[in-house]
Structure formats: structure tokens, C-alpha cells
Amino acid sequence: MPLNVTINGELADVSQIDPDTPLLWALRDHLGLVGTKYGCGIAQCGACTVWLDGDPARACQLPLGQLEGRSITTVEGLAGDALHPVQQAWVEHDVAQCGYCQAGQIMSAAALLERNPFGKWMSHVHSRAFGETSPTRTSWMNLWR
Ligand code: FES
Q1: What is the pTM (predicted TM-score) of this model?
Q2: Is the minimum distance from the CB of 103 to ligand 1 under 6 angstroms?
Q3: Ligand 1 neighbour 47 (Cβ under 6 A)
Q4: Which residue has a Cα nearest atom 3 of ligand 1?
Q5: What residue numbers bound the domain in which 107 lies?
Q6: Which of 25, 36, 45 gets mutated to test ligand 1 (max ligand atoms within 8 A of its CB)?
Q7: Ligand 1 mean position, distance from CA 113 (Å)
Q8: Total domains present in the chain
Q9: Residue range 128-142, pLDDT digits in tens
Q10: Cβ proximity of 24 and 33 under 8 Å
Q11: How far apart are CA 92 and CA 86, in angstroms?
Q12: For 82-121, how does the pLDDT look when each residue is reduced to its tens digit (9 = 90+)?
């Protein structure tokens, strides 16, 4: 039986993968998208966060067979020709510590800013504190574009 999902904007036939396989393992072991990480496997840590139809979701808890026709975005698909503003801010601020769960954090932060005017407010606060031409302000401004 065909099983098609859109992954990072590309239609993918994943019918050769056991439909009980969690999306996390389909991405990592079958599709080579290893940016999404395994942490706990029980929807607690967020390391495996992807977007499911634009909303953050725990890939460790999503059986592939339930995703027919759905759209998945991984951290690899978040950037276009350049880094996503959240990824750029991550770099500018040296956010990564061990870096293991940062993909999940980036996906969650980007999803939050997609639907929240906080980025606009944060840019205003930053420009008042550091000036209009700060590179960091530019990153914040890009967050809500
Ligand atoms: S691996 Fe921890 S929430 Fe999925």
C-alpha cells in the first residue's frame, strides 16, 4: 500500500518502511536526515521535534503509517538558501552547549515565532538597547518576516 508524506517540501514514498516505525527512525535510519535527534523516546525531552503540518511534534511518537498526506519539516528543511533567522541567531549568540538537543529547540522556537508577535516586540526592545544597526537586531527583525 502506498504511503506518501512530504518531507522538507519533497513528496516521499515511504511505503517500503514498516508503518509502525516512529517518524524519528524513518528520518534517521531510512532517509538520512539525522538532524532530528533521539533523546528519551517518550515525548519528554523534545530533541526529536519536527514540524507536522507546521506545528511542532515529537517525531519519536509519530508512527509513520499515520502520516499519509502529511507534511513534515525537519531542521534540515528549515533553512532555505540561507539559515533560518532562528538558526542565524543561534550562531550569533553561541547558543549551542553540547548541541545535542538544539535541533529540537530550534524547531520549537521557530514554530513559536511563526505564530507569535514576540519576535517583533523583541526586536523593538533590542533596538532601544543596542541601536538600529546591531547585527543581532537584524536577526531578530528577520524572525517575523
Ligand atoms: S526523543 Fe525525547 S521527545 Fe522524542
Answers
A1: 0.81
A2: no
A3: yes
A4: 43
A5: 4-143
A6: 45
A7: 21
A8: 1
A9: 665 555 555 455 555
A10: no
A11: 10
A12: 899 899 999 999 988 888 899 999 999 999 888 876 665 6
